[in-house]
Each structure stands twice: as structure tokens, then as C-alpha cells.
Automatic annotation (TrEMBL):
<keyword id="KW-0067">ATP-binding</keyword>
<dbReference type="InterPro" id="IPR009286">
    <property type="entry name" value="Ins_P5_2-kin"/>
</dbReference>
<dbReference type="GO" id="GO:0035299">
    <property type="term" value="F:inositol-1,3,4,5,6-pentakisphosphate 2-kinase activity"/>
</dbReference>
<dbReference type="Pfam" id="PF06090">
    <property type="entry name" value="Ins_P5_2-kin"/>
</dbReference>
<comment type="similarity">
    <text>Belongs to the IPK1 type 2 family.</text>
</comment>
<keyword id="KW-0418">Kinase</keyword>
<keyword id="KW-0547">Nucleotide-binding</keyword>
<dbReference type="GO" id="GO:0032958">
    <property type="term" value="P:inositol phosphate biosynthetic process"/>
</dbReference>
<protein>
    <recommendedName>
        <fullName>Inositol-pentakisphosphate 2-kinase</fullName>
        <ecNumber>2.7.1.158</ecNumber>
    </recommendedName>
</protein>
<dbReference type="GO" id="GO:0005634">
    <property type="term" value="C:nucleus"/>
</dbReference>
<keyword id="KW-0808">Transferase</keyword>
<comment type="function">
    <text>Phosphorylates Ins(1,3,4,5,6)P5 at position 2 to form Ins(1,2,3,4,5,6)P6 (InsP6 or phytate).</text>
</comment>
<dbReference type="InterPro" id="IPR043001">
    <property type="entry name" value="IP5_2-K_N_lobe"/>
</dbReference>
<dbReference type="GO" id="GO:0005524">
    <property type="term" value="F:ATP binding"/>
</dbReference>
Amino acid sequence: TSEEILHHLQNIVDFGKHVMKQFFGENYVHHGEIIQLPLDFVRQLCLKIQPERPECRCDKDMDTLSGFAMCLPNLTRPQSYRLAEHRPLLCIEIPKCGFIPFSSHVSQEIKHKVCRYCMHQHLKVANGKWKRPSKYCPLDLFSGNKQRMHFALKSLLQEAQNNLKIFKNGELIYGCKDDQDSVSDWNELARHLKPFFFPSNGLVSGPHCTRTIVKELIQVITMTLLSSTDTCRAGDMKTVPVSQGRSYCEASAFNKELVRNGKHKLESSGLPRGCLLYKTLQAQMLDMLDIEGLYPLYSRVEQYLEEFPEERSTLQIDGPYNEAFYEKLLDLSPEDDGTVAFALTKVQQYRIAMTAKDCSIMIALSPCLQDECSEQRSVVLASKSRFTFSVSVLDLDLKPYESIPHQYKLDGEIVNYYLKNVQAKEDPVMSNLFKENEDCTLVLHKV
């Protein structure tokens, strides 16, 4: 009904305003406002955009009955001030979780070694979603180590899947579409971006030029992701020391390359505390129990709701997402006292973590001359040019409470497929190279 749609949209606005803004900061989160549109306009819009929608999204219909919608700012342009129209616009979706589970509830040891994203890639290829697994590993991007971050972003550019899109003046110039091979044309991308990175046209064309421009692009994206333009309350909220979990993934192509070269230890520089990746990781790490430890607590809440269904609104499962809801999330106590209150807190923290694992980041860049770049604007320098930029977080709708059983089932499928079809074929010598700090006894036999 129209009332239900209005309530649902109000929950999304309130969740962004009162909860996610506390985690990410005022400058990064744009919660929007609810407006009502003429139904005739909505129907025309629906027909106009249908041919442009990816095939996998066409099973979802636009609401053409209520007219309620959310109005958000145009995040494809830097938010601080108005600019001329000529600019490269980058939209990057950060793929999934930036840490390895550290929970003692994890039943399969492989989950402590290989990240879920890398494992899930193999299941997606087997199911026909992608033709080959990506070399991208989110732990490399979230490491704060520039060498690893560059490798991660280069891997994303090589195998964009649906995780990276680049727009130039509102037009999509790079990103995998459902009906195309995911091997992307870097030369075409370089042709689009060359005027922005090398405005004097001093570089010759060809492979050298393409590699140079892609390298510049990766450098600029890295610097914007590590920059700090905001403060927020959650910046000081440390869920768990990152060192408690493994800082690298054994399936990472970067990591495997190190091992082949005889290096067994990855340097992890760590993220600056104020940058968006750090704040994203902190929100993700509210998943302290892993889905395996969380699912029994979800079952406890479900059992309580079966006995007392009228308590659902009191427990704020479906909102309102206000300051009181946020305050309850700050209880990081790991001690289970057997209560429904404890179980519910962990369930809600898990939903926040899942939202942070699936969020998108949009980077908007605009070239600027030296005299245009004031201290009030965020500026990033490339070799031959400079850009003002803004970074925004999108897709911050709270993950549904009802999706937890699906996540539990999917987790089992991902891990079981990986163990059966991937790890079994891996060279056992490789896994031995990862063993660290093991005692070794040399036994000499008389010949």
C-alpha cells in the first residue's frame, strides 16, 4: 500500500540520517528526502529507462502506484561547489568485506585463511554468472598498503564484473555489461581519460600511453580513498583490533605472487583513521561472530517473536531507526548472558555490518587549475594535472532481518564448493609456504 511504501522510505531516510551518518560522517552520507511525484511522470519514466536496465535487474519493478520517491543530490559531481561540465566521473563499488573472520564460531578453518569474496568468485563462475574469477581481493584494497591497493584496483579494472564503473560527463565509458565479455578495452578508456590526466597532449599514443594513464587513474583513486575529509563519532569506535584477524587472504593473486618470489610475509601499512575505507572497515567488523555464530542468536530472537509477536515493534526490528537504535549498537560486549536483548543487539550489529560490506562508493573528480584550488576544497594531484574531488557512500539501505537464513545457507554453499572444487586442486606445496612460526625438528639418521 501507499502507506507501507511511505513508511519503508521513511525508514531508509532515518537509517541514513541517524545511524549510517554516525559511522561514515556528514560529508559521506546523503540520506535524501521523500517527495511525491505525479503518477503519469513515474509511468513515463519507467518506460523510458526499461531498455537501459541490465537484464538481471528487469525482474524488479518500479513503484508506479504510490508516487513516493526519494530525492538525492547528484553525486556524480563534487559536492562542495559548482563546476564546469567537462570532468571525468568515477563510480566505484567497493566489493564486499575487507577482513577475514576472526570468530571462534567458524567451523571451517579455510574461512580463517581465504576471504569470502575470493571463495564466492568460484561459485559464481560455476553458476555461469561470470566467465572467470577476478584477481581482485578486498583485503588488498583495505590493507592501506599502496602496492597492494594498486594491485587490487588494477585487478578490478581488468575484470570489472559489476564492481566498478567509470562515467565521463554522465556517460558510462567503462564497466562490464551482462551481454559483453568482461575483458575490457583499456585503450578506449585511456582515449577518454587522456585529456584529463595529460591536458597538454604530451604523451604519444600506443600501449605505453595506455599503461601510463591507467597507472595515473589508479594512483588518483588510491589517494582519494586514503584521504580524510570528515570526522564522525564512530571514528573512535574500535570494534576489534585488526591484528586479531589475518590481514591477508591466501587466495589473493598478489599474495601468491609474493610466495612464489620467496617472500612469506605481507606488509600491511594500515588505513589512516579518518579515511572512508577505515570507517567502512570498522562498520563491517561489527560482524564479530560470523554468520555461524550469529545464526543461533537469530533463532533465539525468532523463537521469542513466535511466543510474543506483539513485541516486534518494541524490539525495533522494523524501525524506527533513531538515536536510541544507534545507541544500542555501541554495546560491543562479547559475553552472551542468554537474553533476547543480547541476541538482538548482535543481530542488529550484523545487519549494519552486512550493509557496510555491500555499500558503494562514488568518487567524483573534476580538473582544476592551480589558482582555482582553495584550501576549502579537497584536491588530489596527478603527474600533469590536479583534481578536486568528493567521495560519497551509496546503497546504505539496512539489510533485511529476514535475509539472515539466506546468508547462513549461502555461506555454507560458498565454503563447501570452495573446499570440494578449488582447494582440493590447489598445489599442497603452496599451502605449506604459508605456514608461519612453526617449530621444526631436524632428525639425522645414521647412514
